[in-house]
Structures are given as C-alpha cells and as structure tokens.
Recover the amino acids of this structure.
C-alpha cells in the first residue's frame, strides 16, 4: 500500500506545476483525498481536498482561483494543478487518502517558487 506524490520542482513566480498522487496496492475510489503542504518553520496546512462520492472540492483561501484538484479513478491518481505560483507557495506538498479511520500519506514532493 503506497501513495506516491510527484511533479514538484523549481519554477519561477507566475509559473505552473502539476502534482500527481498515485496509489498502489489499494483503490482511491472510496477515499477522500487531500493535499497538504509544509513550509520550513511552519506547520503543515491543508491546501485542497476532493470527496470520493461527489467530487466536491475545497481550497484554502490562499490558493483559490489558482489551484485545481482533480481525480482520475481509472488511473488511480489525484492531481493538483497549480497556476500563478507565488514564492509563498514554496513548501513540501503531501497527499493524503482518508477513509473512515484509515489514513495513508505520500512521501512529499518539494515545490520551490523562486526567480
């Protein structure tokens, strides 16, 4: 059972990245998926999530209008499209799959926004 986050990197302000969260060993179909991030010296914060049942989405205010979360159940993968990136978006991004009392975490992918 594993969640693999990928797609991070170094990007200039205003640029875009797409993060992927791929599951192996279990199906994401019945899991709520959330993206978190943690910047150096700061607490981990929730960025976005998507429900398994109706695909409703949630975004923290600081990313609304810039980030989009989506899921492709056929590929067992969730995506976080990040546009208009800002230096304050720099952090390690983690994906989380939650269903009842079960929680899986990905290993994190570094996103650095800098000129």
């Amino acid at each position: 059972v594993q969640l693999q986050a990928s797609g991070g990197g170094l990007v200039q302000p205003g640029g875009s990245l797409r993060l992927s969260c791929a599951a192996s060993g279990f199906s994401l179909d019945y899991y709520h998926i959330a993206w978190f991030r943690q910047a150096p010296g700061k607490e981990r914060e929730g960025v976005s999530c998507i429900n398994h049942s109706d695909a409703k989405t949630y975004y923290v205010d600081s990313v609304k209008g810039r980030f989009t979360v989506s899921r492709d159940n056929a590929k067992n993968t969730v995506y976080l499209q990040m546009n208009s990136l800002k230096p304050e978006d720099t952090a390690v991004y983690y994906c989380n799959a939650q269903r009842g009392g079960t929680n899986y975490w990905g290993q994190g992918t570094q996103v650095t926004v800098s000129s």
Observations:
- The longest strand covers residues 91-99.
- The chain has no helices and eleven strands.
- The radius of gyration is 13 Å.
- The chain has a mean pLDDT of 95.
